[in-house]
Amino acid sequence: MHTLYIKQRIFKITDNYPIKDDQGKVCYQVDQDFKLIGDKIHVTDPHGDEVFTVKRKLIRLFPTYSVEFADGQSLKVRSQLSLMRRKVKVSSDDFQLKVRGNLIDHKFTVSESGNEIGTIRKKLISIGDSFEIQVKDPNYEQVLVAITIAIDNLMDREDDEEDED
């Protein structure tokens, strides 16, 4: 098991930030296109090679994201309606994952067939958004990073909608 950390800036027009391991080494770089154009997020490795992109699908009943990996694989991340808990379904041709989270403490458990493969935790007291990703199955590291980015985008959009009310 290992841990990855995301620390974002407070004021941002677009999301641009590194994802680091527990030694402080940059593992991924996240760069989001300007939000008026659309939500397309590029994730690269430390050498600048694209690892995957996350794109928000427009005109959906529930927020849906498509993830396209550099190796040609893809997956969908879809928010589902639930009381007091956030549910996210992750599906690909190879697997189905369940993401369950508590709205109060912002901790999410990711599992496949009942086996936990990782956890995602948003720190509540932090300057800027901060996430901790515990990777229990290294085969799913990139998938866990993609899910975290989608969940962050979902929470940002919900916060924006609450601010408009």
UniProtKB/TrEMBL annotation:
InterPro entries: LOR (IPR007612), LOR_sf (IPR038595), Tubby-like_C (IPR025659). It comes from the Bacteria. Pfam families: LOR (PF04525). Belongs to the LOR family. This is LURP-one-related family protein.
